[in-house]
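re: that chain from earlier
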Amino acid sequence: MLKATIGITIGDPDGIGPEVVVKALHAGSLRETLQPSRFLIIGDKEALAKAARSAGIDFSPVILNKPE
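^ sequence. v structure.
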């Protein structure tokens, strides 16, 4: 059973937000602490992909156009 769905916004796509979000989720501490929560990242997918590439992190999100 899921604890919760947690929404995380990336802020300005040209700022540090996308990198912070990608690195925080990749580090695993959020996932371990909030297990078994689901994370809904709200923001520009290209900005997240660029941040992930820059950090050398594999990025394979599930894209939702209607997150109901």
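Residues 5 and 38 are 5 Å apart (CA to CA).
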